[in-house]
Write a structure and sequence with these properties.
single chain; 7 strands
Amino acid sequence: MARTNKDTVALIRIILQDHLDYWEGQSTILKQYKNAYENRFWEGQTYDESMIRIETADCFSYVEGYIAALFSKSPAVVVGGDAANTAGDPELAQAAVNRFLFDQREQLEIASRLALIYPSSFLKLSPAQSDEMLDKVSIRAIPPWEIIVDRDASAWNAQRFLGHTYYLTIPEAREKFGGKKFTSVPKEDYFGNGPMPYRSGNGSSGIYGGTNKSYADLS
């Protein structure tokens, strides 16, 4: 029997709530990871005030040293000829791919940094408005708590579903999804009020807008 639209919506809400509950339970330890990276290890910790506290920037040094080594050069590939398709142009393909990777270096760095600090990270490819062919696809680094995965899957290709929970302003939601009824909610940071340092980099946090706007709940 085919699943009705009502059943599908109910299933999505169950999956979303399970996702939110899971990452809410992870927020305390992930906050500690974040604090260690930002040299704020003792923030929120209980300690004897009579003791001298010492903190070194080992976490930051390790992460940023790894990033510096990983991206000492811009990401690039080498493309060779394909025996099964002699009509292709390896040099053109290599130039196109490397130009695309060069433009996306910032997001690749952010995704790598997120994966070093937290359990994982993701890259989301989306269509973009552009007259340039190589600019019609954009890449965004996504932290793991925004991505809904099937945690019961034994392998990545066995995932039954995959989703991204995010915010849009009300006008953006209406433009994208039409004149539906949306619930306006305040945009909250996963770690609480304040800046979003996990989106370090020019323009990365601006994708999501400021926290003082009204957003449509698309979860």
